[in-house]
Structure formats: C-alpha cells, structure tokens
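Usage example:
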Amino acid sequence: MASAFRTLPPRAALRYAPRMSFVPSGLSSRLRCAVLGLALCVGCREKHGPPRPLQPPRVDAISALRPGTTITDVTTANYKIDARLDPTAHTITAAQTLTWTNRGASAVEMLPFHLYLNAFKNSQSLFMLSSGGQLRGARIGNNSTSWGFINVESVQVAGSELISKVRYPGPGADRTVMELPLAAAVPPGASVEVSMRFTVQLPEVFARTGYWHDFHMVGQWFPKIGVRVGAPGFEQWDCPAFHGRAEFFADFGTYDVSIAAPTTHAIAATGVLTDVKDTPEGIRTHTFHAEAVHDFAWMADPFMLTLHGDAQVEGGTVDVRVLYRHEQLAYARRHLQAAVGTIELLSKMLRPYPYSVFTVIDPPPEATDGAGGMEYPTLVTTAGDHALARRGLRLPEFVTIHEVGHQWFQGMLASNEHQEAWLDEGLNEWVDGHVMETLYGDGEDAIDWMTWRANITAVRRAFASPESSLAPIATTPDAYLDFDAYAATTYGNTMFAMMTLENIVGTDQFLAAMKQYAQAWAFKHPTGSDFLASLRASLGDIDWFIGPALQQNASVQLSIEKSHCAPLTPPRGVFDDDQGHRVIDAKAAPSTGAFTCEVVVANRGGVPVPVEVEVEFADGMVERLLWPAQTGNWHRFTLEHNTPIAAVRLDPDQKLVMDNPFNNSMRSHGDASASLRASARVAFWAQSLMQVVGL
Amino acid sequence: MKKTPGMMELIAAGWRGVTRYTGTLFTVFVAQSLVALICLVMLSQVFASVFAQRPMFDEGVRGDLIALVWAARYGSSTLIASAWLVVGVALLWSIASWFLVGGVNAVLLKRPEGRAATARQFGAGGVNTFLKYGLLTFLSVPFLVVVLFVLGMCATVAVPKMQYALTMPQLLAPLALALLPALFLLAVGWTVLDYARLDLSQHRDSHELGAFSAYFRALRLVVTRPLTIGHTLLGWLVWLAIGVGYSYIAFGHPMLGAGGAVTLYVIRLGVQLLRMATKFAVMAGQAYLHEQRTAPPRTVEADIVAAAK
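Running the assembly step on the lines above writes:
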C-alpha cells in the first residue's frame, strides 16, 4: 500500500513540533496572545499540526531478554511477520510465517487460528452478540469506517496453497476462528511452517484495538495459532471463538516483526527494536525482536514522545519507556514512576522481570476507552489521564500498576484467560494492592487528596458491586450474567478472597507461597488446579477456604445477632438438700453487681473463616474473643463482667476483606450525635436550597 | 421611567432597606431557620433510627470517605428518602415564599413606620398578592423550560470536552460554557419575576394589572434595562461568595464535640443570615428601581376610556 503514503520532505532537521493550529499565523503578537488566551479560557486543547517526519529512532543495543536470563521451552509458536501500515486507510498488509512445534504426545491434523479482528467485522460475530457492541465504556461505531476485520488471502504449507481448504467453524456467522486442515499430520516433536498473507482493516478504536485519527493501537491483529491442552496423548486444541468477556491464550514463542510505516509515525512494539530502514518514499521499516512471549502488539502515532526510566531488578536494568502525547506529559511522568516501581517490586516479590525493555503507551484521552488499560508482553496501554485525576488521586497510577502486574500474571504465568480469567485478573488485582501500598503508603495509596485518605483495597471494597455473588470466582468468563458481573467477581472478589486468605495464614507465608507459584509456573500454562496445588504445597490445608470461596458461590457475611447483658445473681429459689427445702431469696443471695452477657455472632456467607470478636465494656475494658473453626453459621459467647457491654466489633483488624464491614460493629446503646451532626450539615444545604427557590 | 438609577444607587437602596427593616429581615430569617431546624430534627431522627448503633457512620461523618461510602450503601434508601424530604421542604418553602415575598415587597414599597404598621403591611401585602404570585410562578414555567433546553444544548456540547479534559481549565471552561448561558437566562427569568411581583404589590387594587400583564411589563423592563439583570446577578454572586468563603474558612476545621457542633451551627446560621440579608438588599434595590417605573393604567382611567368608547 505504498502508493497511499504521501511523499514527505527529507527527514533532516524535522522533529516533532506541536503547533497551535488555532492561532492564525498572520496576527500581531498581542493579538495572538489574546486569541491564545481566549482559546485557553474556553478550554480548547492544544491541537497538533500535520504529522511531520521524525528522526529515526535509536536501535536498542540490547537483547530481548536481560543478560543472564535463560528460559527454556518457550519456542512453540515462532512468528516472522512483515507488516505495512497505511495510516490513512487504517489498513495493514502483512505476510507471516509461523513455525509451530507439536509439543504434545499426539499427532496434529488440523491447525486452528484465532482471527480476533473479525470480532469487529459485523454485528453477528460472537463478540458483538455477547457484548452488545460495547466494552469497558467504549461502543463500536455505527458508520462504515467503524468496522474492522482480517482477511486471510493465502495460506501455504510446504509450498502448497491451502486457502481453499480453510474453514470457519463459527458459531453462525462468526469468523474469529479459522481451521486449516493439513495434508500431512504433524507428529509429536515435529514442526510445521505455515505461511500466510493477510490484510487487516482496523476498526475505530474499540475493545483494545483500532485507530482514533492518527493514533493506531494494533493488538490481536495477526492469525494466531491456538494452544494444545490436556493430558499427554489426549491433547485438544483450545481455540474458541472470541467472546465479548473473554481474553486471550497463546503459546510462547519468538517474534521477529517488521513494521513499515511513514516516517511521520513513531512506532512502539513488543520486544526490542533491532533495525530501522528508511526508503526515499518516506517509509520507515522498524524491525522488532521478542523472545519468550505469547503475543505481539504495536502502536503507531505521529505525535508520541518518549520518557525513559530505569528499573533496577536482580542482575540488571530494565529500560522502561512511556510513550505519550506532549499534552499528557504530567500524566506520563506518573505512569513512568508507577511502572518502574512495579517492575522493581514484583521482580522481588514474584520473580525477576526477564525482558530488557518495557513500554507503556499512554493513549490520547479520546482513545482511552477503546485502547487504554490493556496488557501485552513487554508493552501495555494505560489510562486514567483526566483533569480530575489530581496528584494524590491515583487512578492513572493504578491502571499502570495493574497492567504492569499482568507481565507476571498472564505474561509469564500464562494461564488461560478465556477459561480462568480470575487466575490473571484476580491475582493481579491482589498483587496490585501490595504494590500500591508499598509505592504510595498504607492507608493513602489510592486517595491522598485534601483531607481524604484511602487505600485501594478499601476503595475497591466499598464500591464492589452487589451482583458479584451471582457466580463463583472459578467461572468461565462467558458464563457470567454480563460484563459487570464478570468484572466484579473476577477482579474484585478474587482480590478480596486472596487478601482474606493472606490475612488468615499470614502475609509472609502467603507471599512466599505466591513466589513459589510464580517461580514454578513461569513460562508455562498453569490452571486453577495448578495454582491451588501450589498454594496447598506451601500453606498446607486450605481447602476449607478455597472450596467455598473460589469454587462455590460463598462469601463472608458476618453479623452481630445479639449483644445483651443482665445483672448477675446467685442462684435463688427453693433448693432441696439434706435438711429439706431451703429457700434462698434476694436477701439471702443479693446481686453481685456484675453482669452476665451474651454475644451471638453469625456468618451467613458460607466461607468458614475464623472470626475475631472484640467486646468493649462500659468501664472501657476491651476483651478479644475468637470464633476459631466454624461448625455452624452462628456462635454464642457468654461473658461476665462488672459492667455491661458498650460495643461489639467483629473482625476489628479488618482481616476478612470479603466481608461488608459496616455491620460488623455495633453499640449497645444508640448514639445519635453523629446523626445530629450529619443532619445539621444537610439542613444547612437545605436552607441554602430554600434561599435559592424562595426567599 | 422617571429617572434612571445606577448600580450604586440600587446598592445604596438595598443597604437602606436592610438597615431600616432589620426586624422584617430577622422575622423572615427566623421563619426560614425554624423550618430548617424542623428539617434538621426530622433528618436526625431518620438517620439515628438507622445509624445510631453503627460506629462506622460516625467515622464517615468525621470525614472518613470510605466509611461514608459504606454508610451510603448500607442506608441508601434512607438517604434517598432524606433527599426527597429536603426537596419537599424546599418546595413548600418556595410556596410559603409567595406570601413572604409579597409581605417584604409591600413593606419596601409602602415604607410603613413603626413595628406594628410594618407587621400589618407585611401581613396584608403577603395575603393580598399570594395567589397572583402563584400565578406568576406558573407563568414563568415556560421560561424555565427554555432554561432547561439551553442547559441541555450547552451540556451536549460541553460534556464530551469535559470527558477528555486533561487540565482544570480544559475541564472548567466547558463546564462554564455549559452552565453560564442557562444560569444567565435563569437570572433573567428571576429578575422578570421579581419586578412583576413588585408591580403586583404596588398596584394591586387601583390599577388594571393582572399577573399576565405584570409579567410582560417586567419582561419589557428587564430587556430594556440590563442594569436590572446585572443587579440580580451581583446579588447572586455575593450570595455565592458568602457560601464559598464560609466553605474555605471552615475547610480543615472539623469542630468536633458538642461545643464544636453548637459553634458550627451558630456560624452556619450567621452565614445564612448574611445570605438572606443579601437577598433582602437586592429586593430593596429592585423596589427602589421599580418606583421609578411608569405606572400601568389605573382601573378608573381604563373605565373612563371604555365608557368614552
């Protein structure tokens, strides 16, 4: 598609320079200032001028993996792709050669490929039908340029053209999976080379990929082979149609990808940049190399600048880059700090980050709903840049931390996202809490603004959706009621369950168990069973927790059913002894002045967690009790004390993160002072409203 | 129009009105504060019935944002009911204001001397114009619809810009563009209403003047005299500034404990009194300007004209 590229001036002295395009050039400087000021007053965003040729980027003089990093068995699916972007038509033409090795114990007669972009081809794809055409705040456009697709034009194996033999198993009109029957089966241990030519039409940015004006985020864009799963000898292909709530799953491999685009466009991609070549027609070819990764994504944009940082990890340094448009510089700095901190911390907590580079794309705000907040190996997109995200309101940082965390949970621990999304999203959310707390301080890591302080766990917990209880955590994404239920359970509930388990078994032990899991299963495809077995090996018997918490639809729902005290009196009445009837009345057995109290606590949630109970008496004394192993769903404590109970608090240290804390504390006698104070404030606003609508 | 007073004259007239009829101002303020106090007591009973035994609500009221969210989730229906209670009280007050504004206008226009005469004038004025003021309110509904339409139109343009704002100017400028036209129109509508009310209060018996004609006479005045709108806007700006100033000074001073709560209540009363005085001063200024207007045709003159025909 070279003809579509404009002829551009020589690259000498041409660097990206933003222009204020709304200020006419012929005006006097005073008038220009006035126009500029007026524009700023009405909140115009600084516009970018037309794309200009950029200086060629510096080739990365480093290997894809950090020196000293050795990873074995990560070459199952090796891709070599030559792609060319037409940024005007938003199309990509590409040729791809896949070398796939059969690592199983059974022969393979058919190769299935994901054609994810066909999810956006029409309204009848499984993705569109299951998502209603919207995902994470973005909605597929309605005009003819909104749709995207991938068209495979040629498939060759051993020199034979097989395009006429490919089939699309559906369902229905869905074409997100293509099956290629092979003329000759691939025996165990053997490899097959598949060459393809394909064309991509990018959609208007939606569901992680596409274009918005000059910005192109290219993900899930090439025919990607499925994964063989199952016991040796009984392997099956895992290559389902693309569902609206599912993500991705692929084998590790090596990627050598050349991307040709106009010299006006900055390119960022998975892996390291190994070569740059320019043509006189103004086309620049970037060649990237990535090892031990299971996906490849890239971005092209004429206005992106780069911030660099170094993350120090065991045995070396990771070059961390944030690509941003200049108006997003303030946010880019925050993303960079978050990314560097996360890589350094998770390298210690789980296992060292093995790659030599890491790239964060900060999409333009208008493209964020569609392209922001997505993870690919060594490259992520972030989100959260907004005027309201003041320093101390750490949504941008949290998004970056979450996406960087995916380098471990799914990047290295390559679980099956469309089967067990909780293994990457949920565990990642759990680790995000630790990262936020370490980087930004306990109790104020999410919000540290004006007089408000809160940590991310508390925020997530307080805003958790009630529909989260509709399905167990260990549910396939497509089996959830909708995206909200999927997100609430997979992200939130898994995080809450993991934090609860961590608080029960102890943070040190739990972190050690997670480290063990990460080191044992990195660059493999762990399942939920593998994860739980790893935890059991480290923590002992935890089935009492993980059964109901992960595999059943259970939770922790504590409540104080009863808190009551009565004066303690010695036995009174008529008693029989050797001397016959003996009457003991109040005079003979006066009240002791003490009280006997009973506290009944309950857990209607079904996860039999140990519960600490703190009882505060009227004289100020505090007593801690433990409801250790739950055999029923309620428990009665009986206490004697000189004064009655003033208050009862369940789970006073808030260890049971799965629970709603609001009804975990109760005063014996109501105190209306806070109600009065709140009412006074509301009444003030009410009076203000009265003055607005009346006298 | 006999003469054309300027802004300073209107402000001076407002000051004179406040200082001369301080008792009237206090009376209206006490009435309003009593209604607010009743609202406070009702709300506290509602809140206490749900939250009195829950210490986490206390933490929320003390400023713990997360505890406040939990409280809102736990007692969401209570809070929604309380919000409707506030709206109901405000609507009732707006109806009561037909009487109170009528009274205040009568006092400001007739300038009675002495407490008893002022009280009589206030009561008579309020009663005599109550229904006409009600009719005026209904007449102003189409204007409010226009205001809402303008607000909707401007918001349609502004919201996408706000959605992707990266800086506070980028956020606030569209917000202002979304709100200011509608607020300006609202101020125009309120000004028209104010002058129509004054017309009805001054000429209620002796002139051929219904709510409809008063409304359009006022509309003509406001359109031809932008000063009237500027005067109203100035009043609302001062009203707003008092609230913002209070919020600024109070920020970071939680005033805990019973003593703190009482002090806070008294301070808030002071703030409301200042705002009420501002509104009263605006009304006095409007009354002064109104007095310069050409009177509508007298009823007797209209009769003569009709007879002559």
